[in-house]
Amino acid sequence: MYLKRLELKGFKSFPVKTDIIFKEGITAIVGPNGSGKSNISDAVRWVLGEQSIKSLRGDKLEDVIFAGTDTKKPMNYCEVALTIDNSENQLELDFTEVTIRRRAYRNGESEFFLNNKSCRLKDIKEVFLDTGIGKDGYSIIEQGKVDEILSNNPLSRRKVFDEACGISKYRYKKQEAERNLSNTKENLERIDDVYIEIENQLKPLFNQQTKAKKYLEISEKLKTLEVNSFIREIEGIEKELSEVNEHRKVIEKELNEKEEQKNVVEKKQEDINKEVEVLQDVIEKSVDYINSIKGVISKKESQINLIKERIRNFTNEISRKNLEIKDIKEKLNENKQYIKELESNKLSGSEELSTLQENIKVLEGSKDKQKIKLESLNNEIELLKESIIDILNKKQEFSNKLSTLNANKENMNIRDENINSEITELNKNIEIKSSELDTINKEFNMQNENLKNVNNRHKELSINLQDSISEHNKLEDEIQKSKYNLNGYNSKLNVYIDMENHYEGFNRGVKEVLKNKNLKGVHGALGQIINVPEKYEKSIEAALGAYMQNIITDNEFSAKSAINYLKQNNLGRVTFLPLNIIKSNKISLGNLKANTKFIGIASDLITFDEKYRNIIENILGRTILINNIDEGIKFAKETGHRFKIVTLDGEILNPGGSLTGGSLKTNGNILSRKRYINEYTEKISNIKNEISHLELKRESLDKDVKNIKNEIDSHESKIKDLEKSIIIKSTSIKNVESEIESLKGSITKLENEKNDLNSNLNYTLEKSDDVRKDMEELDDLYNKNKEKIDALNEEIKRYNDLYDKEKSEFDELNLSLVKKTEVYNSIVRDIKRISGENCELEEKNKQLEESLNYEEHEIIKLQDSILTEEKEKENLTKQLGDSNRNLETRKIAKDDLKNSFDEINKELKTIDRQHIELKESLFKVGGRLERLKTSQDTYINKLFEQYDMTLVQALEIKDENLDIDRKFLESLKREIRSLGNINIDSIKEYEEIKERYDFYSEQKQDLEESMEEIEKLIHTLEENMKSEFEIKFEEISKNFKYVYKRLFGGGCGELTILDKENLLESDILITAQPPGKKMKNLNLLSGGEKALTAISILFAILITKPTPFCILDEIEAPLDDANIFRFGEFLKDLSKETQFISVTHRRGTMEAADYIYGVTMQEKAISKVISLKLKEAQEITDII
Asked: Which residues form a coiled coil (predicted)?
């Protein structure tokens, strides 16, 4: 068994369908960084069920789908298929080739296929159990797998060893068994709950069904007695209603007289009330006026007190301000005397400063002149020195040039001879390469043209294939949708057929008669023989009521035979309708059709076999259909409540005036079942025809797709061959062109060099003479400049002495000036400060004097205000006394009117009491009438509700001679009441619950036995795992020691189980001793030593239990060249048992490979794979 083929389409950087064919042995996948070579190992891991997108170097599922480029659109899905050769039947599948396919879409959906059949990830895992193949096995070894072995996480390390020791299949089975055990426990708990619940229901239901049967027997006896009792009660109530109506008329007359008397007295009362209201208004206004005067007087007193307080405040303030003015004047006199002294000091200081400044100015001018002269002389000397340095440098430069020119002249002559010889040789090589290039170009152009034609056809086929697949998918969706609808309609049809066959909705007795095919002359229930339009179903069902369950027979003898069958088997009661007896009872329409509210007579709105017309018209011939209850009420009044009226919502207006309505419980869909069965049968037939048509189209498309795929595969093979050949030719063309250009460039360089040599030789001879002349001129200039520098140095010394003397005098004068200036500035600041202080004092004094004048004037004004306020207060006090006297007079007049009002009120109360007594009498009479009518309606409603009869129908069975024994009637009712709540459905429910109880008892027992078997299985699996792990681990440990020595060239490696008592969970210790070193824990090894140790473990596992194929993704990257060589040699040995596919960039690994795939990225973000043998790879090593 080995990996035969890998197909990629739309996965990461492989947008175009890419087939990679693998052979047994070692295959290397190479390419530059970023070319997409690791995407191949990612694809294998993904198709084997990798769920973690992060381990595939992405963040979300759509990251594995080709994202598009500037020139190529992104894809909506990706697909990877992995084909394994199973000719040796190592996989437990009856196929020589096994293909695993995984497809993912941008919406997050993902699907798996096993040999092109849809499957679950679980199915794929089970196929590869115990083979080492899978995302958690050791068939894919990458740097991450190496890290797992080196990891401190014992669980990561255990996964690798579990798979290698062959216990992963047991662990998987154990996990499955534990899940099954958990599910079984949950199921058992649920069944226990249901079992207990059913058990609790069973006994009460048995008692209920026993009571229900007894109830049905007693109820039939009670019906005859109670119906006649209701009729006699209704007739007695009708007589009493007439007497009560006469008494009501007398009371109404007396009541009218009392109302007239009451109106006269109320008029008198109203006049007195108006006078009282007028007086009350005047009194209230007087009280308001008195209160307002009191408020004004209070305000005046407060105002006087406030004015007096302000006068006291002003007097105190005047005394304080006079003292402050005196202090200010004394301070002003002191400040003026001090300013005179400061002004005198300021004048003498100013004169001293002027004299010093004049002397400094004169001395500074002389000093600056000396400084300028010195700077001028120094600058002149510096220029002369620079000139001398330049002269010396130039002399040396000219001497060097002269030596160089002589040497160059000799070299140029030798090089000229060599150039002529090289140019001749290069021209011969160009002629040879040009001939070779012409031949390769012709071959390259032919292959390019062929590739273009094949590519165009391939694109055309790909478009056709995509269109066909898209159409195929659409057809598949339509077929699945139609099948889904078909299943839905089939389910619904089966439900209604089942209901029809089992007579759902019919009472037990009706069901039993209809089921018994031995009974002759039975036509069926009334609800079965009629067809009702959908819009009238609710109305007709309400109109029929219990009639729907009546059974039609040929004659009374057939009915009698069926009744005997029911009696003998105690199956309940049924009403029969003999065809030979029942006559039509249809009403005459007359003018009814003209009424806009009228829809029709119920019997005319349904269809049925003509032989049943008499029965239908007898039951529904006097029932009229109306739109709604409001129209029904109006229609009933217009027709005198003579007909049974039914609305479209199922409300019933009975003859005589009673109404029935509310929510309507449908009777098992008896009327609508036939309609649904016909509708669903027709829909199912249409859908089946549609599915057949679509499947024929799909088959035709499948053939087209297969043909196109075969042609595409053929073209893709041609494209690969042509691309490989073109790449080689292109490389050859580039190499030859590069060589020719290189040769031509060399000739051009040589010719340019020859020309330059001739020019340089002539120039060299001329330049030598010029250099000698320049050197003589430089010697003369040097001597002259030296003499000038000596003369200038003498003059600088004289000017320096004079400058130092004047600078000393200047510094002394400046210091004296600074001191004098500071004293002067201090005097000026004091004068300014004191002058400012005087201004502030004068301003404050002025403000205080102005304030004193204002306050003295205000005191005079306030004293005048007090006199005015006291005079106004006296006038207000006088007005208050007059107003109080007028108020008392008005209060006395109001009390007199109140006494008159009380007398009239007593008279009115007497009339009111008499009026209320009459009203109460009238209300009682009205109540009596309502009670009688309600009582009458109650008996009519009881007839309909209890026995489904109108008053007219009840009168037809009236028996004047029937002796109604109330005691017997009550005894029957007591007997029914003693039965308690009756559940008629309990008879059927008991049978159903008993059946469920027996079913769950059996289920419970099965689950308990299943739990016991699963627990035994788990124990067996654990024992097998321990035994298998112990044996295999010992073998791996032994092989590890061997591999370690071989890969390291010596040393020792060991594997140890830390907890031998707990083999299945224990951590595994890895220790290593590289050659020449002590035994160490993994953490103490270098990076390369760690990697090689982990590789040794993986190779030991492969020796112990070879996997059919193994993908290595750059696991040897950390190794040095010596270790790479040993790694490659060992890989060759292992390849005898295991097929290796190595993603690598190391030359040593490539050299060990039998085949090489080159991954390139000629177009940005799009990878391309080239398959080569090792010898062919040598030709395009530079490309890779």
From this structure: 167-201, 227-492, 677-816, 845-914, 990-1031
